[in-house]
Design a protein that fits this description.
Heat Shock Protein 90, 16 helices, Rossmann fold, elongated, alpha/beta, 38% helix, 421 residues, single chain
């Protein structure tokens, strides 16, 4: 089948990076790239055709008009109308599919003609607000997947965007939503209040589909996510030696929402690795340093939870050996990435975008596409071997421990730590 052509319309100077981001994302995404062909005016080579004629020709050839409306109205033609509004009007006249995304700026900051354009769009079609590039990307993803389902081009959407069968609003933990909003406000300036209605917060995060809870909503804020997804747990084990063998020194299975599971799994590791304990020669406080940076452990576990294949019967496994930590993730790298490309800054291609965005907003994911390079850097700075990554039936991250334990190292046992304090 021919791909559906998307015309991305906005004031170029205001949303130049967002336009390029959406073009790259839609073009390279494993699902969206199969069905959509995006266009931005920057693609056209310089030629004699008038600018207005060129962009109106593209509007006429497109199937979908994707408008991004913000603060600026843009340059005006002899009739006092900006290119963005001309494009919107033409798309409306031709009955094109129109998707409108509006920045969350206060109204008093918008050009008065931009306000009028937004009101006109709101009277005709449903629009979605966004406050940053991550939210815009997620909102576009949701809108395009919904469109594919409406046209029956796909019968089953991405896992995280699919409706969670038999889930009801009573299955959502309201206190966990409030915790998330408070955390996201502190970490990323999340715009909503913890006192907002849960439905409004879930809607803002694109976690409802046709007013029904998505799989991502249950994994993020469900009271008992494992009632719906039994293998979404994290299994943690500590072994005496270098291989998986009995007896197992310690074994825990953690359930709950993704935030709770990550926290528990990280604590499992940090509570069982070695810790360097200093003295009071330089200050009144005793300095401590883990043999493996906490940030590296967090990144490995968060990556496994956020990017795993939730349709798999496998679970995330965290295994602590004498010389390494292995984190097993039942999933595959996206086709845009290889194990080699992971080691350098790369584009963000989350397997579960609706799950990944709230984890980013809550500070569990620091920066899109930089987590693995940061993990490698912190491990090397701590004198550890460079982490390894293996893609077989599962994706495995290996974080190496220190090769030798000196007399400065003390096992993390409360009695011994107390003696130092």
């Amino acid at each position: 089948m021919n791909k559906l052509k998307i015309f991305i319309s906005s004031v170029q100077s205001e949303f130049s990076s967002e336009r390029q981001m959406l073009f790259d994302y839609i073009s390279t995404d494993a699902l969206l790239g199969r069905f959509f062909e995006p266009f931005i005016f920057e693609m056209l080579p310089a030629k004699d055709d008038s600018a207005s004629g060129a962009y109106l020709g593209q509007v006429e050839r497109c199937d979908i008009y994707l408008g991004i409306f913000g603060v600026n109205y843009g340059s005006e033609n002899s009739d006092g109308i900006s290119p963005t509004e001309v494009e919107f009007n033409r798309a409306s006249e031709l009955h094109k599919i129109r998707l409108i995304f509006i920045s969350s700026h206060p109204e008093n900051l918008r050009h008065h003609k931009e306000q009028q354009l937004i009101r006109k769009a709101e009277n005709e079609i449903v629009r979605k607000k966004f406050s940053n590039a991550v939210e815009l990307k997620t909102a576009v993803y949701v809108a395009l997947v919904n469109l594919l389902e409406e046209k029956e081009l796909i019968r089953v959407g991405p896992f995280d965007a699919s409706v969670c069968k038999n889930a009801m609003i009573k299955d959502i933990d309201i206190e966990r939503i409030r915790w998330f909003v408070q955390t996201a406000q502190r970490k990323r300036g999340f715009p909503l209040s913890p006192d907002e209605e849960p439905i409004k917060i879930l809607t803002h995060l694109n976690l409802l589909k046709n007013k029904k809870l998505t799989n991502a909503a249950i994994l993020l804020f469900g009271k008992q996510p494992q009632r719906f997804f039994i293998t979404s747990e994290i299994r943690c084990a500590m072994f005496y030696g270098y291989e998986v063998e009995k007896p197992i020194q310690s074994y825990q299975v953690y359930k709950g929402d993704v935030f709770q599971m990550v926290d528990k799994a990280v604590d499992f590791v940090m509570g069982r690795i070695d810790i360097f304990i200093g003295d009071r020669s330089q200050s009144n406080q005793v300095n401590t340093k883990y043999e493996i940076p906490r940030s590296a452990v967090v990144e490995g576990i968060v990556n496994a939870v956020a990017h795993r294949d939730y349709t798999s019967n496998g679970s995330v496994q965290v295994m602590l050996f004498r010389n390494r930590i292995e984190i097993w993730n039942p999933g595959k790298l996206p086709f845009q990435l290889s194990v080699e490309k992971l080691r350098e800054a790369h584009g963000s291609f989350p397997a579960n975008p609706l799950l990944a965005e709230p984890m980013y907003l809550a500070g569990y994911i620091e920066r899109m596409g930089t987590g693995i390079p940061d993990m490698i850097k912190t491990c090397k700075e701590s004198g550890l071997k460079e982490p390894e990554f293996v893609q077989n039936e599962t994706f495995t991250a290996i974080i190496w421990r220190k090769e030798q334990v000196t007399q400065q190292v003390t096992q993390q046992v409360t009695q011994q730590v107390t003696q130092q304090v």
